[in-house]
Amino acid sequence: MDEKFENSVGIVETRIKRVVDEKETLKLVSGKTLSCVDVAYETYGKLSESGDNVILVCHALSGSAHAAGYNSLNDKKPGWWDNMIGPGKAIDTDKYYIICSNFLGSCCGTTGPCGINPKTGTPYNLDFPLITISDMVKVQKLLLDKLGIKQLLSVVGGSMGGMQVLQWTIEYPEFVKSAVVIASTSRLGPQSIAFDAVGRNAILADIEAGRPPHKGLATARMIGHITYLSQESMREKFGRVLRDSDKYSYDFSSEFSVETYLNHQGQSFIERFDANSYLYITKAMDYFDLERDFGSLQNAFARTKSKFLIVSFSSDWLFTPGQSEEIVNALVALRKPVSYCNIYSPYGHDAFLLEPDTLGRLLNGFLSTSFEKPKLDKIARYEIKGIEKIKRLRVDYELIESLIKPDSRVLDVGCGDGMLLLNLQYDKNIDAEGIEVDQELVIKCANKGLDIIHRDIERGLEHYPDKCFDYAILSQTLQTLKNPHIVFKELLRVADKVIVSFPNFAYWKCRAGLFFDGRAPRTKQLPFRWYDTPNIHFMSLKDFDDFCEEIGAKIEKKIPLIGNRLSPVRFAPNIFAEQAIYLTSRK
Amino acid sequence: MDEKFENSVGIVETRIKRVVDEKETLKLVSGKTLSCVDVAYETYGKLSESGDNVILVCHALSGSAHAAGYNSLNDKKPGWWDNMIGPGKAIDTDKYYIICSNFLGSCCGTTGPCGINPKTGTPYNLDFPLITISDMVKVQKLLLDKLGIKQLLSVVGGSMGGMQVLQWTIEYPEFVKSAVVIASTSRLGPQSIAFDAVGRNAILADIEAGRPPHKGLATARMIGHITYLSQESMREKFGRVLRDSDKYSYDFSSEFSVETYLNHQGQSFIERFDANSYLYITKAMDYFDLERDFGSLQNAFARTKSKFLIVSFSSDWLFTPGQSEEIVNALVALRKPVSYCNIYSPYGHDAFLLEPDTLGRLLNGFLSTSFEKPKLDKIARYEIKGIEKIKRLRVDYELIESLIKPDSRVLDVGCGDGMLLLNLQYDKNIDAEGIEVDQELVIKCANKGLDIIHRDIERGLEHYPDKCFDYAILSQTLQTLKNPHIVFKELLRVADKVIVSFPNFAYWKCRAGLFFDGRAPRTKQLPFRWYDTPNIHFMSLKDFDDFCEEIGAKIEKKIPLIGNRLSPVRFAPNIFAEQAIYLTSRK
């Protein structure tokens, strides 16, 4: 076997299934109908006996059913997502049964404008009816029905594939156990519509003039490619390098290597893609608008039953992190199970194909914990490592656990690797949600099957409704925030009770240090130097008491602590406590 | 008079001057030559007797010589920069004599591809030689020579106009007293080249097919317009609103209002602009590359004598703030007089035409202080207002002044409204530079004629060479920084001596407050509450002594202070001083 087949699904065949025959009609959103609809699809892995391991992969604009492996021994390149789908890979073919189908309107096997119109016996071309993402998903569902699939473990898709995923969760809520939406949006903004429109204009100008729309399609593809890359990645990839000279040619040839690259992309696209399909697909993207269809994003997601993973990439300016956050905010406001990670990447929108490591670890964790609930290793449960060790002490964890009632809804703000939430899930059967700013810790939480939102808490919690949690936890984090008072007040709004723990700056060693030594104090709880400490606010128990009084918070319980002792400090706690845990609520 | 003529230069005439006659030749950078070169230009205001009030305005891609006023009574719109040029406006026609000329290669009066080739008697079209920014500037200089202009008070230009400004300062260093470069760059990045190339491709495809290049030019203009706006401003302006229906049309017509807008922009551009000019001008932009021409940006600016003002806009993604900063960094490294402001604006690249208030105040201050050195009002000199009052105490100012030797080079980091630097300029004749993060304070400094860089000091000083200042001042700022140790070490690198002042956290009232009261101390110097204080690090004189020892800094002078007394605290300063000023240097 060729070494290209290592970790590959090997040779795969693209199959065609007729999902609407000549006697049936498929009703489209536009009101038009279609007969004789064929769907091209590929499958990888084995269907389990109970049929619980099916993952549907939805492709993007110019993709096809050929997502992994090779269609023939001579193929130079594997399928478009081969770095994610295969034995032992993130979407593991040893474990899951994966289906990828070409969507309606495309030109890679499924019925589209270049297919034969049964009424005329000639290709549809521009007589093909306009289609929508919803139509595409409907056709995918017909395929799954024909294949006898009863439920999807997950629907996964990037870019326009993510739009299909969102539509799936809304139209077939019972059918979709989990959903992964990568670098996508619930609706394009005007800039993306504008780029699409310029590309279509170029194609339509050719068609109107009676020319084959080659130049137009190439122009559209060139514009597309610019939007798939980030400025940073373009600078790195091309810079201002000239193609084959170090001198300017002083003519209008393509002399910068970025020009040559785009020309090549445009030309090779003409050879493999149909200009009419490009018109229909971009229009379907422009039309996709869940806010419009349902009145609001929250309405759109109101009846979904899936567990969501939303992923964006930091440098993606076509489908921006902000657009992913809109989806996350709507789901969060509905208290639907959702995780979100904004992966740091320089590769722009293309990152969804180019970050197999980070994206892979995230996806792998999310899919496998969706498949099987993870087991908690009782021994490992309180092993807290590295920076976590400094941030939280074991005693802090245990006492916080003791304050929380079973079966409650808990938000852990700055939840780290998620150990506290995981323990609470096992011991108290809580409904858990975490917020964490560090990408690697977010991935760790996702691998524990936790709902985790990748966010800087100081950017606000305005999308959470009032009182949507029973408890919010802010463990050893308050003193590291820029605006601790704003965050604390917001937590009092979104949760019935807020549990907060922080080091006591009026602990006697601190007082003595400053009073007698005249230096910024350093203790076990405050081990940093004045200039490199993450603790940028200092408060004592008295300060915090005053603060609660001032903002109208009720202190329900106050547990001053010293060392690893679980029993509270009773005498002069503002002097003898090293840290404290407060249980507070709104008056 | 029509009310549109209020604050307007009124009716102006575009004149034509032949700067290269039929017997002369203009040698171009490409090696080709031109004869019979005409230049279209307009002037506003009056030339002063000494000729010291001339401002040259350079226009952008699709601009013309008609920058202000009206060419006829019936004109609906004034010149392209009428909101900046006029009586009492930022570029004040009551004070200055302003010249704006159409550049070589354009189609608005100056010789270009649509002009007549004297050799053939027919239009040049694509026989016109390729031109560069340097060629354009050469032709502008020929015009000024013909007009008898001996020196420019300033050259001002935005976007591609800014490229011409940069070229002016390099090619005619003695001629240009000051230079204003707005939303521009020393070289386009690959993304901008790519957008230009796609536009040119569309035009050239028409030309190759023997068609009038209307569709191509419209495509190019549509792409251009997308890049001039920000995503944010497009969302605000267009959203996803449909042109004239609330229902999708399910066809390929332009139904989103952003599509209609772009179509309109494309169509109206065809009527007023020449496709060949578009090819030549965008190519001149692509070719502009000061790094390439001179080996490095620092080499490029090595012999400039102008005072610079560089302006960028926060949401400009075509000519990014980062690109402006590259220019600033090169000038800063050469210790050339330069000011920089990154104006907060949602309008993208177009902001250079749409922010007359902010840009106007900045420009007005820079131009008037370039024209006349500002006078210091002796009474007002120590009147410190608002937040400044909290940040700096008078005594702090006076003592810092006393530490600085006359005629030295001084960097004030976090310089506020620039009062300290201004006083030092008058009293000690220093060479001053300020760094400030607040936009409004930056504008205030520019209005005092100070060299001021708009920057967050925590982003680093790596572009300043070692020991390029005699003194760096960090007055009441150290404790507000995220990484005070990194900033302080950098200052020790760039300056011979660093003067730093900060509140003493071990002042007896602080000690007593914490020790006896058990609360985060509040004093006159530390008046904030624990949660909303800008002071995120606390250190005592002893802490700072230890720190200097640790990083190898020498304390040359230490002035512990109490209240408004100018005399230092002699006894137990770490207890009795409220604040301290240190004069430090590298060991």
Describe this structure in words.
- The structure is a homodimer of 587-residue chains.
- Chain A has helices at residues 133-146, 160-171, 190-208, 214-228, 231-237, 257-272, 275-287, 290-294, 297-301, 321-333, 351-354, 356-371, 386-391, 394-403, 419-428, 439-447, 484-494, 508-517, 541-551, 573-576; strands at residues 15-20, 26-27, 33-34, 37-44, 54-58, 85-86, 91-92, 97-101, 152-158, 176-182, 307-313, 338-343, 409-413, 431-436, 452-454, 469-475, 495-503, 553-561, 579-586.
- Chain A is an alpha/beta fold.
- Among the domains of chain A are: 190-287, Rna Polymerase Sigma Factor, Chain: A (Orthogonal Bundle), CATH 1.10.1740.110; 378-586, Vaccinia Virus protein VP39 (Rossmann fold), CATH 3.40.50.150.
- In chain A, the strands form four sheets. Chain A has an eight-stranded mixed sheet, sandwiched between helices. In chain A, strands 15-14-13-16-17-19-18 form a seven-stranded mixed sheet, with helices on both faces.
- In chain A, α1 (133-146) packs across α2 and α12 (356-371) runs parallel beside α16 (439-447).
- The relative contact order of chain A is 0.08.
- The model of chain A is unreliable at 384-392 (pLDDT under 50).
- At the A-B interface, α3, α4, α5, α6 and α7 of A face α3, α4, α5, α6 and α7 of B.
Helix-residue proportion of chain A:
25-40%
Stretches of chain A where pLDDT is under 50 for at least 5 consecutive residues are: 384-392
Strand portion of chain A, in percent? 15-25%
Largest sheet of chain A: 8 strands, mixed
**Helix/strand/pairing category of chain A:** alpha/beta
Question: How do the strands line up in the largest sheet of chain A?
Answer: 1-4-8-5-9-10-11-12
So what's the overall shape of chain A?
A: elongated
Please work out how many helical segments of chain A DSSP would assign.
20
Second rung of CATH, namely the architecture of the domain at 378-586 in chain A? 3-Layer(aba) Sandwich
CATH topology of the domain at 378-586 in chain A: Rossmann fold
Q: Kindly report the oligomeric state of this protein.
A: homodimer
Give the total of beta strands of chain A: 19
Ends distance of chain A: 71 Å
Task: Kindly report the greatest chain-chain contact and the residue count on each side.
Answer: A-B, 85 and 85 residues
CATH superfamily of the domain at 378-586 in chain A: Vaccinia Virus protein VP39
CATH C-level category of the domain at 378-586 in chain A: Alpha Beta
